[in-house]
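May I ask for a single protein's sequence together with how it folds?
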Amino acid sequence: MSEQEIKVPDLGGADEVEVIEITVSAGESVEAEDPILTVESDKASVELPSPGAGKITKITVKVGDKVKEGDVVGMMEVSADGAGSEDAGSEEPEQKQEAPQEAKSEESKPAPKKASGGSRKETVKVPALDGFDNVPVIEINVAEGDTIEADDPLVTVESDKATMEIPSPYAGKVGKILVSEGDKLSEGNELLEMTVQEDGGDDEASEAPAQQEKPQPKSEEKSQQASSSVPEPQGSTYEPPAPGAKVHAGPAVRKLARELGADLARIKGSGPKGRIIKDDVHAYVKSQLKQAQQGGGVATGSGIPGVKLPDFSQFGDVKREAMSRMMFATANNMQRSWLNVPHVTQFEDADITDMEEFRKAQKAAGEKKGVKMTPLPFLLKACATALAELPQFNVSLDMERKEVVRKSYIHIGIAVDTPHGLMVPVIRDVDKKGLWELAAESAELAQKARDKQLKPAEMQGACFTITSLGGIGGTAFTPIVNTPEVAILGVSKAAMKPIWDGKEFQPRLMLPLSLSYDHRAVNGADAARFTTVLSQLLGDIRSLLL
């Protein structure tokens, strides 16, 4: 056996990178390509592999050290079969092999089009992935309609060796997103469409500096400029941003947050441009533990005594299985809403006898249109009218800034029961659409929800939610407000009831309504008015035309 230095290989253009984890120790035997340590640049976390099979004799770096290509990070005794003993002779050809790859990466970038002072459409493709292929998407960092800068992260992918963020080659507005979480990507695959704003300048003059700019030095320069003014990390909490909003954090920070169970959306970053750093995550976790130990923090759900589970196996056979991501997210959202929102539920019955007679009479017209008319479009239209008449239901509360956010649009979410869990697609501008259009759109979105084909943008922006258990049964229930909305309508199963008309009892089809609302934003009298308006609108559908 011969002793050999373990050196940092080519880092794909990155300069100094930080050691964030050491995965072996002195005396440990390793195989070729086994990870020795993990380093992180501002774009990716990368595992540095062993150059051969043998025994580690010494590690010469520690977590937090900065290293660059060629630095010695340890020593090892290489096995006699020599899977790594060609250290001096093999390094140079490897560099020669990677040079064309860099050139290829530059060539694969979309060629800039001549500026015209307007805008242009671009399809962003996956750049060179440093030899990786078919890497899964673990996170999409932008949403359709976002305005982004060049080098902002678009998606995060993860191979068996590294987690990498794919940056935007342009500044502009995100159009259609062409990938989903779980998709596997290779170099050249299409990521998304975007609108790029032209600056109207000289094409050649503006192109040269852009090509010389390297993402890593640019990030380091910004960090150095901001370091003197960056506040101490506080890990403070705040109301989560709107769905689809970007969280600025590097791969190692995201990994740390996952390990500690910290929600990055609730952490205020102290890095440049609000970027979340590791100290922010640690400070956040520390503050949450402190609140829990002191019995405070009810607003965020901490400080609530946990439920200690018994050993269920003492009572009989049990089987444990992991929660699905959707189930876990739903559980967290429901708990957060219940703990933060003072709930009250208002109950009402709506006479839908005439509405149902009219709806069933549209069966032939629906068959011609290829659309089935259900009670949902009537509920949507009635709720939109009620929201317009009582705008205090079409708000969100910003308790941190002590402000009421009043919305001038009416988008309504419809809860859909799927085999994968509850999903809530959103129908936009309900007040501007007719019953047939609402029937077609709600059916399409419900089917997409059941097929797990909903896009993130199709589940965002609701002002109000309708959840119906009418097809299953029940007489009433108390739905949980889908915060930051301030109200949700629950619909139960309609039933024939004897209703007194002043002279005698008449059989009428009555629909039970349950309106849960946030008592901070809505008072009881307004809730009673809202359900009364709904009952009147559903009782005489002609009023929907007024």
